Amino acid sequence: VENSNAFVFDSIENGFQPLPSYVFDYNNVIHISTGRWFTLYVTDANRVYRYGTAPFLGPQYPNREVVQCRDKEIISSAGGYSHAFFLTKDNCVLSIGCNRDGQCGLGRKTKDVKTLNVVPSEYFNDREIKSIKSGAHHTLFATSDNFVYSCGRNDDQELGRDDRSDSTIPAPVLGIHNECKVLDLACGYKHSVVLREDGVFVAGLNTSGQLGLSDVPVSTGRFVKLATQIKSISCGFFNSVVQTIDGNLYGSKLISKSDRNTMSDMDYRNVLGYSCSGHKMLVIDMSGRMFIDGEILPYKCPKEMVFNKNREHEIEIVSTEDAWYCLRKNIKPIVKNHFVKFETIIKSFSFCDIQINTFI
């Protein structure tokens, strides 16, 4: 069975392992997101599959498809501690799961939202949503015209507001207007990071220096200017990491300083991919070597996961509290149809339910 373009790394002994294509009904994965104990995969057939513990998504069917998402034309997802968001092709935002802090963005607080609910488009002023990222109990939304909205718990002002009141509806983040392009979003346990072309906007809890600010325990929202343009960002529970366009990685406490975050003998100028998990950071360099918190692992990632000679694909890494997941992007679709010739006339055939074997 041909392997899919998705990989999982949840054991130091085994490293990254490719997931077989039958897991996703022989479709390519186009988006991965993670919650605390679960992972969501969206395929090019607009189906959603989940692994891990997420009872709010319904029964654990054998093929792990999230049946509630079927026929919704889902294109991306975002996972929190015990809630999830989905974005459809026609710009519809759906939410489900724990809503005690209003993190589902439905205008009310309830213990659990057990079925997919539509987040009213008027909450976003009918703007087109291009990206959604969830923290433990809060969520950020980026629009195509470069506004950012937030909802959910706000104990430590992770929503980027002046007060500490929870928000049951998505509302604009203070200080972020559409004068500059929003490139990426990231959420930690109780902090938020917004990457723009002109710098980084940070808000929320800063007790571990996760905002890159040394002078405040909590920030309502502040811009951090950097001398070098940032390419991407990643947040763990209490840490943040950015990668600059020249390939350097900077830890959260170095975000506004010129010091380099050197990591053991890793070639940190040639980083292929990286991601913060709950309390650790995984880095893969261009040669396929893997590092966790600067310590090199005794093996390389699978050869099909790293860049090939022509660099036809790139990788994206996301993580739960204690596992990492990798997605190969920009690859050719899996061939789904094959014609097989037999030397003998076939009388009948049948398929087994889990689509692994065919008996003739």
From TrEMBL:
Gene3D superfamilies: Regulator of chromosome condensation 1/beta-lactamase-inhibitor protein II
InterPro entries the record matches: Mitochondrial_GEF_domain, RCC1/BLIP-II, Reg_chr_condens
RCC repeats: 91-145, 146-198, 198-246
TM spans (from-to): none
Example of a GO cellular component annotation carried by this entry: mitochondrial inner membrane
Biological process terms in GO annotation: positive regulation of mitochondrial translation
GO function terms (MF aspect): guanyl-nucleotide exchange factor activity; rRNA binding
PANTHER family membership: RCC1-LIKE G EXCHANGING FACTOR-LIKE PROTEIN (PTHR46337)
Name of protein: Eif2d
